[in-house]
Amino acid sequence: MRRSERIVRLTQTLLEQPYRLLSLTEMADQLSSAKSSLSEDLSIIRDVLSKEGTGILETHAGAAGGVRYIPRIPAWQVQDFVQEMCRILADPERILPGGYLYISDILGQPDVLDRAGRIFAHIFSEMEADYVLTVETKGIPLAVSTARYLHLPTVVVRRDHRVTEGSAVSINYVSGSRRIQTMSLSRRSLPEHSRVLIIDDFMKAGGTAKALIDMMKEFKTAVAGIGVFMSTSEPEDKMLEDYVSLTTLAHVDEISREIQVSKGNFKLSDKER
Fold first, then answer.
1. Assigned CATH topology for domain 75-263
2. Cβ–Cβ under 8 Å, residues 55 and 71
3. Could you tell me the pLDDT band of residue 270, with boundaries at 50, 70 and 90?
4. How many Cβ atoms sit within 10 Å of the Cβ of residue 68?
5. Does the pLDDT at position 63 exceed 50?
6. Are 15 and 48 within 8 A, CB to CB?
7. Tens of pLDDT along 126-138?
8. What angle do CA 163, 227, 183 make, to 5 degrees?
9. Which CATH number applies to 3-71: 1.10.10.10, 3.30.200.20, 3.40.50.740, 3.40.50.410?
10. Angle, nearest 10°, between helix axes 3-16 and 24-31?
C-alpha cells in the first residue's frame, strides 16, 4: 500500500471513531504495515490536525496502548456557525402565535446538527461524562450528534412511562410555560454513580433542565454539564446558573415582526479565539 493511501485510510478511521482508543497493532495488521511506519504516518496526521485546529491525537504507550482522536473545532468556525444561526433564526417568518419561535426545521438539518454536536463535544470534552442525557423529542438529534463526537451512549428521558422499559423513576415538574409535566426514565438505562452531560434544544426558565438534575439525584448520578442550542434572555433569573447556550433569544415582537437573536453565553479561551 502506498503511503499516501495509508495516510488517507488512517485519517478516515480516526475521524469516524472519535475518542476511541485504537490499537496500533490491529491497525498495522489491517493495513499490512509496520508499526514504525504507522507511527510516522500518525505524526504527519497529528501535525495537520494541530495546524488546522481540528483535533488532537493522543498516543498511549504499552501493550494495551494505541492512539485516540479528540475532535476540536477552530474558533472561527464556531463564530461563523453561531452568526449563521442568528441570521437564520431572525427571519420574521419564524414567528408563531403567542410569540414563539419555530426552530424545528433547523434542528432537522444534518449539517447543523453535526456542527452543533461538534461544538458541544469541544466545550465539554474535559467533563469526563459517561452518558449524554436528553428529554424527548426535539433535543434527541442534537444529543445524538454530541454523543457521537464524545463516543458516548445517549439516554433519553420520556414524557411518559412505557411498559416495555420496565421499572422507572417518574417525577413531576413545572415547565417554562408554568405547566405541570411529567418525565420518566427506566432504571435500567442509567447505572448509578455515573456522570451525565445534559443536551437540549431550548431553555426558557430552566424548568426542564432543573427537573433532569433532580431526576439524576434519584439515580445517584452527577451532572457534568448542561448545553442548549438556544436559551432566552428572559427570565434573567433561571432555575439554574451553570449552563452553556450557543444562541440567545432576546426579543420576539409579533406586531413589528422583529426577532433579536444573539450569541449565547459560551466562552472560548484566549488561546482559542
1. Rossmann fold (3.40.50)
2. yes
3. very low
4. 18
5. yes
6. no
7. 999 999 999 988 8
8. 20
9. 1.10.10.10
10. 130
User: pTM of the prediction?
Assistant: 0.91
Domain spans of the chain, in order of start: 3-71, 75-263
Place of cell 421499572: 167
231: cell is: 436559551
Distance set, CA 180 to CA 29, 53, 118, 183 (Å): 58, 45, 33, 10
- CA distance linking residue 159 with residue 139, whole number of Å: 13
d(CA 100, CA 3): 55
Residue type, 163: V
User: Would you say the C-alpha torsion 53, 15, 197, 176 has a positive or negative sign?
Assistant: positive
Please give the Cα distance from 267 to 273 (Å, whole number).
9
Q: Per residue in 185-242, pLDDT tens? A: 999 999 999 999 999 999 999 999 999 999 999 999 999 999 999 999 998 889 998 9
